[in-house]
Structures are given as structure tokens and as C-alpha cells.
């Protein structure tokens, strides 16, 4: 869990910690990184780390949530009118951040991506989703997040050779099958 106050110093410290973790991940696996390692790499104290985060994994969650918020913010500026176009936009967004995706997957924490998508899926509505009840939207969000996360995982595992349209086609095909 992470705790961020609407305070520039806390946000700055959290960003330093995020950068420190990313530096550490170049040489070690997530499970081998200590809070002391991150504190040393980020230039913040262990106390500052613990005021904001509980574990190194929380820093990955924070980073993923920030990326999703960034995607949603950009998404809301566009006039996307179908689920297919929304999926295309999100896939394109994540392909631009494939280094972070690789960190998530190499750390075996696909759940972080899944949870972030589930958390923010409510903010990605299109007119064609009006046919769903609120309960159905919850199921759609969870299913979509799971399929989406899994497809991105396999894309990286297979060497990132498929294009955005190919990945979108796979996403639509598998979501239809679920």
C-alpha cells in the first residue's frame, strides 16, 4: 500500500523512490531488493520510504497507477466512441511503456497491472457500453483487465513482434470468447 498526500515534497520523494527502485531493478530481481537498497539508490531515508510505501512492490503499484492515470487523462481528451478504439488506445499506450511492462512481468507481478486496470476501468466508458448494467460493467472491467494483462504478457514473452492492430485483434477475439 502507498500513502501519498497532496504535498509536493511527498510527491517528489515518491518519484525519487520510484527512480531508485527502477535503478535497483537493473541489477537485481524485485524479491532481492531491500528498502535500504532503494533508499540508497533514491537518496531518501528509510523513514521517508516507510512514510509513503510499505514494500518495494508498493512502488511498482504506485508507478502502474500513475501510468494508468496518465492514460485515462489522455483518453478523456480524445473522443473515443467504441470499446474497440478504447482497447486500441490502451494497447498503444502500454506498448509505449513496454519497459515498465517488462519489469512487471519479470517480477511476476502481473496482478499489479490487472488491479490498476480494474481500478480505473470505470473512467474508460464509451457510448456502446451503455447497454450494460453496473454489475455487468464490473464483470466486463474485470474480464477485460485480465485478458488485456495476459495478452500484453504474452506479447512481451513472444518478443514484441505483433503490431498494435494485431494485438487489438487478438484482444477482441479473446474477449469475445470469454
Summarize the structure.
The chain has 178 residues and is mostly helical. It has nine helices and no strands. It is globular.
Q: Please give the count of helices.
A: 9
Q: How confident is the prediction overall: mean pLDDT?
A: 88
Structural class, by secondary structure, is mainly alpha
Taking the alpha carbons of the first and last residues, their distance comes to 31 Å
| Net shape | globular
- Provide the low-confidence segments as ranges: none
Tell me how many strands there are: 0
Task: Write a structural description.
This protein has 178 residues and is mainly α. It has 9 helices and no strands. The chain has helices spanning 8-24, 35-42, 46-52, 56-77, 83-96, 98-106, 110-120, 134-157, 164-177. Helix 1 (8-24) packs across helix 4 (56-77), helix 4 (56-77) runs parallel beside helix 7 and helix 7 (110-120) runs antiparallel to helix 8 (134-157). The chain is globular and about 50 Å long. The chain starts with 7 loop residues before the first helix and ends with a helix. The mean pLDDT is 88.
Amino acid at each position: 500500500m502507498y500513502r501519498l498526500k497532496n504535498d509536493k515534497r511527498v510527491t517528489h520523494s515518491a518519484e525519487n523512490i520510484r527512480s531508485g527502485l527502477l535503478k535497483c531493478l537493473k541489477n537485481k530481481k524485485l524479491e532481492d531488493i531491500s528498502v535500504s537498497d532503494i533508499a540508497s539508490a533514491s537518496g531518501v531515508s528509510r523513514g521517508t520510504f516507510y512514510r509513503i510505501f510499505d514494500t518495494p512492490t508498493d512502488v511498482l503499484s504506485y508507478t502502474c497507477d500513475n501510468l494508468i492515470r496518465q492514460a485515462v487523462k489522455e483518453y478523456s481528451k480524445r473522443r473515443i466512441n467504441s470499446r474497440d478504439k478504447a482497447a486500441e488506445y490502451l494497447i498503444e499506450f502500454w506498448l509505449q511503456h513496454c519497459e515498465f511492462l517488462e519489469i512487471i512481468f519479470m517480477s511476476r507481478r502481473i496482478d499489479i497491472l490487472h488491479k490498476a486496470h480494474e481500478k480505473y476501468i470505470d473512467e474508460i466508458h464509451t457510448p456502446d457500453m451503455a447497454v450494460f448494467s453496473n454489475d455487468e460493467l464490473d464483470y466486463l472491467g474485470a474480464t477485460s483487465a485480465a485478458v488485456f494483462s495476459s495478452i500484453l504478457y504474452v506479447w512481451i514473452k513472444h518478443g514484441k513482434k505483433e503490431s498494435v492492430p494485431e494485438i487489438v485483434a487478438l484482444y477482441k477475439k479473446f474477449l469475445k470468447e470469454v
